[in-house]
Structures are given as C-alpha cells and as structure tokens.
Design brief:
By secondary structure, this protein is α/β, with parallel strands linked by helices. It has two domains: 4-130 and 330-473, 3-Layer(bba) Sandwich (FAD/NAD(P)-binding domain); 139-202 and 210-325, 3-Layer(bba) Sandwich (FAD/NAD(P)-binding domain). Helices cover 31% and strands 18% of the residues. It is built from 13 helices and 22 strands. The strands form six sheets. The chain has a five-stranded parallel sheet with strand order 3-2-1-7-20, with helices on one face. Strands 6-5-4-18-19 form a five-stranded mixed sheet. Helix 4 (170-179) links the parallel strand 9 (162-166) and strand 10 (185-189). Helix 1 packs parallel to helix 3, helix 5 (206-214) packs across helix 6 and helix 11 (384-404) packs parallel to helix 13. The protein starts with a strand and ends with a strand. The structure holds NADP nicotinamide-adenine-dinucleotide phosphate (NAP). NADP nicotinamide-adenine-dinucleotide phosphate (NAP) is lined by residues 50-52, 128, 134, 136, 166-172, 174, 189, 191-192, 278-279, 302, 326-329, 438, 440.
Length: 474
C-alpha cells in the first residue's frame, strides 16, 4: 500500500487527507506543527478575521456546510469546519517537519517527534504562512506591544489605546473597522492604496441554513454562480481586459465618494494603479471607518519608530501605545523553513532563481513529491479551496499512473516542466498584476512565483488528467 505523508494542516492538508481517502489511500499521515488544525485560519485570529470569498465557494465541494452563519464566514467557524472534516483522519498535531529527504525511492521526514518514512510526500504549507516583518527603523525600540495581524496578541487589550496599523491590505481593512469602536485612536499608515468593491455580507438566518441542509442543490447552485463570477474576474484580470474591469473601478470610486466627504482623504485612498493589480479588496466598512473622528490615515513614509511614537517623512510624530503590523506575508518562501532534498539536490537549489513547478504541483528531479498551493497557483480572484481540489485530482491521477506502471517513483520530465514554464511566463507578462503596482505576487526583480495567468476553468482542465508524456516513472 502506498504510504503518504502530508505536511501542513490547513485547507490543503485536510483536503489531501479527505480526497486521498476517497480515492482509496488509507496510509496517509498529516503533520501539523501547531496544536490545532486550520493553517491561516488558525493563525489569523485578529478582530474581524473572516473569509472574503463566499463560504459556499470557500469550502470543499465534497463537504458542503449548510450551517455557515453568514455569506462570508468568520475565522472561528472556518477553523471548526476544517477540524470537523479532518476528524476521521490520522493527524499528528504539534509535530513540526523540519526536513524531508528522498533517497532510494522513499521520503524520510525529520519531525520533532522523530523520523517518519513514506513513499510519497505532499507539501500543504500554504503561501501566506510566514509573516513579513518590514525592516522599519526603530521597530525594536518601541516600548509597547507590537505584533503582526497573523500573530495577534490576545493578551493585549487595545481598549482605550492609541493604535497604529501599518499597511492597508486585506488584513488591515478587516482589522481597523473591528477595533475602531474600542480604541481611543487608530492611525493607519498607508504606503499605497488598493481598490475595493462592496462585500455585500449578510447573515444566513436559521430558515436559510435549514433550507440549504434540506435542498443541497440550492447551495450547489449558489456555489456555481459564485464560481462563474470569480472565473469571469480571473479571466479579466489575467488577460488584462480593461474594459471588463472598468465597471469594478467605477464601483470602487463610488464606494469612496459615498463614504468619504473630505477631499484630501479621498485623494489619499484613491489608487492610481489599475484595478486588480493589487488584490481587489471586499469591504462594506473600511471607508466609513476611515471617516470616523478617532481614525486618521497618513500616506507619509514611516521614517522612524521610537519608544512611544511613529515619525513620518513629513516630520510629524504620531504618539501610539500599540503597533499592529498588517504588512502581509513572505509569500515566495513556499515550503520554508522545511528543507527538502532529493538525493544530493535541495529544492532551494532548484529554486535559486525563482520557485517553479509544473502546474504548480511537481518539480523535475524530485520524485514522488507533490506541492499543493505551490508556485503560480494563486489568483486575483477565485477560491483557493477549489484550486487545491483540482491539484489533488492531479496528484491522485499521478499516483494511479505510478501504480498502473507498477513503478516506485513518478517525476515530471524536465522538458515538460520547462515548456510549461515558458508558456506560463509569456502569459504572465500580459496580466494586470504586471502592470506596474506593488503587490505581493511580483518581487522587486519582476519575478512572479505566485500567479496563475489563465482562468480557473483552464486550471481545472489542465489538472483534471495526467499527460503520460509529461511524467516518467522508475
Ligand atoms: P498584503 O496584501 O501584502 O498587504 C500588506 C500591506 O502592508 C500593504 O498595504 C503594504 O503596502 C503594506 N506594507 C508592507 N510593507 C510595508 C512597509 N515597510 N511600510 C509600510 N507599509 C508596508 O497583506 P495582507 O493584507 O495580510 O493580505 C495578504 C493576502 O492574504 C491577501 O491578498 C489575501 O490573499 C489574503 N487575505 C485574505 C483575507 C480574507 O479572505 N479574509 C484576509 C486577509 C488576507 P504596499 O501595498 O504599498 O506594498
């Protein structure tokens, strides 16, 4: 029987356990370094943390949950859902996988609980795992609490405090409205604004939840409608269809005008770059919150942080009691800090120029290794849960091919991976994400190990089967 080790207990790891079980694989072990499952939904406990993809799309297609309390479920519900789905499977919590080495047809994992061997290794480590802490001058001199949104300090009570929030991405726009009513003052430090559209969130009353439970088709239809909308957006963004994107920009402008009367604040929060270049943010309360009397937004560069203040480039000292770093993630580190090697070659060496993988899943020279949510499988719209399902379909097809050929190993051919990569890079160049803004997809050298440059329907098509010519077995 094929033994499979899965590293990571977020959506990808739990999805792997569930889909592999459905495909008949029983010897599957999931390793999660934290004491609970959830991945990003374990780490992001900041006030206001919730999904910004409708929950009927942000759930496994094979495990629909009719009981979501809202259209966009909050963090606690999503984590509970994942724990529920994972219940039947072999999950080793609080077990850190430090390294994995492939030798003589098998993977050996070095874990905090000892060695573990398996035929197949699946990494499910997420892209938004490691917080990015910017090198802000003087950050270490700050005397009060300072923490990242993904490492929220639950012991710190922000009530009545003057709070700095650095960053204006998807995390910041959720956290600021959530803390504003309790704190004395919020100062938002914006480097560059992003476009938003209304979220349209609402609770599902009990009768609606009962209806979804009784008539599952309704939930499936809602999922299909959301999928179609998101895939339309994925197509427009990846093909830089400015005419299709213009209505979103108009809606975003209107959202600003409606909520903000002060022309100076309006100017500051109105992005200059193309809509979609940064991830489009969904919100109903960001601009109304910015217009509140205890909220201030500065677009001046942070010059220095002192023991009790943040000084900006215009010479203004902003006195603060606590700092929230809503500064995003080291999204290009992928499996780090886990060290992966096949025989004498490390994945870090293979990825020295830029992380790349065939369909974001397999890497030449690394047999029996499959990456979930790997390089170039993020999008500007769509549900990563659906992407993970597509990837697992491909993984299972590869495992079946390996069995069909009675082989021990399966690995993508270098020529196939290179041909795919060349096609991908050409397509990436025409996407909206490469239109000149700063975003977490493209690094300072113009490398993009993040984005999928076509629609999600195209991704599903490509991953739904295995091209036997692309893989070799041994
Ligand atoms: P992010 O989108 O990368 O935003 C980071 C913010 O910090 C940006 O505004 C950035 O400014 C700013 N920043 C970074 N370094 C800075 C510095 N040195 N000085 C000043 N400002 C700095 O991170 P995020 O908001 O955590 O979101 C990341 C991704 O997580 C999202 O795109 C989304 O995919 C996901 N997410 C999802 C949800 C959800 O579903 N509910 C919620 C949160 C996050 P620039 O824009 O100028 O770089």
């Amino acid at each position: 029987m094929t033994s499979i080790a899965v590293v990571g207990g977020g959506f990808a790891g739990v999805g792997a356990a569930a889909m592999l079980a459905r495909a008949g694989y029983r010897d599957v072990t999931v390793f999660e370094r934290e004491a609970r499952l959830g991945g990003v939904w374990h780490h992001n406990t900041y006030p206001g943390a919730a999904c910004d993809i409708p929950s009927h799309l942000y759930e496994f297609s094979f495990a629909p949950n009719p009981r979501w309390s809202r259209r966009y479920a909050p963090q606690t519900e999503i984590q509970a859902y994942l724990e529920d789905v994972a219940r039947p499977f072999d999950v080793r919590l609080s077990t850190d996988v430090k390294a994995a080495h492939f030798h003589d047809g098998r993977w050996t994992l070095e874990t905090s609980a000892g060695e573990h061997t398996a035929d197949v290794l699946i990494t499910a480590c997420g892209q938004l795992t490691t917080p990015a802490i910017p090198p802000l001058p003087g950050l270490d001199d700050f005397a009060g609490p300072a923490f990242h949104t993904a490492r929220w300090d639950l012991a710190t009570d922000l009530t009545g405090k003057r709070v700095a929030v650095i960053g204006t991405g998807c995390s910041a726009i959720q956290v600021v409205p959530a803390i504003q009513p309790e704190v004395a003052q919020v100062t938002v430090f914006q480097r560059s604004p992003g476009w938003t559209i209304p979220k349209g969130d609402f609770p599902y009353p009990g009768w609606a939840q009962r209806l979804f439970a009784r008539v599952p088709l309704l939930q499936r239809l809602d999922r299909a409608a959301n999928y179609a909308f998101h895939d339309f957006a994925a197509y427009a963004l990846s093909h830089r269809k400015t005419k299709l994107l213009a209505p979103f920009r108009a809606i975003g402008s209107l959202q600003i005008k409606r909520a903000i009367k002060d022309p100076e604040l309006r100017r500051k929060v109105t992005p200059a770059d193309e809509i979609g270049c940064k991830r489009i943010m969904l919100t109903d309360d960001w601009y109304p919150t910015l217009a509140k009397p205890n909220v201030d937004l500065t677009d001046q560069r942070i010059e220095r942080i002192t023991a009790d203040a943040i000084r900006t480039a215009d010479g203004v000292e902003h006195p603060v009691d606590a700092i929230v770093l809503a500064t995003g993630f080291r999204a290009h580190d992928f499996v780090a800090p886990m060290a992966i090697a096949a025989e004498d070659r490390t994945l870090a060496q293979e990825w020295a120029a830029v992380p790349r993988a065939y369909l974001g899943i397999t890497v030449p020279g690394f047999p029996n290794l499959f990456l979930l949510y790997g390089p170039n499988t993020n999008g500007g719209s769509g549900s990563v849960v659906a992407t993970i399902e597509a990837q697992l379909t491909h993984v299972i097809a590869a495992l079946k091919e390996r069995e069909r050929r009675s082989a021990r190993t399966i690995v993508v051919r270098r020529e196939a991976a290179q041909a795919f990569d060349a096609e991908l890079r050409t397509a990436l160049a025409r996407t909206v994400w490469h239109s000149g803004c700063t975003n977490w997809y493209v690094d300072e050298h113009g490398n993009d190990p993040s984005q999928w440059p076509w629609s999600w329907t195209e991704y599903r098509r490509r991953t739904s089967r295995l091209d036997p010519q692309a893989y070799e077995t041994g």
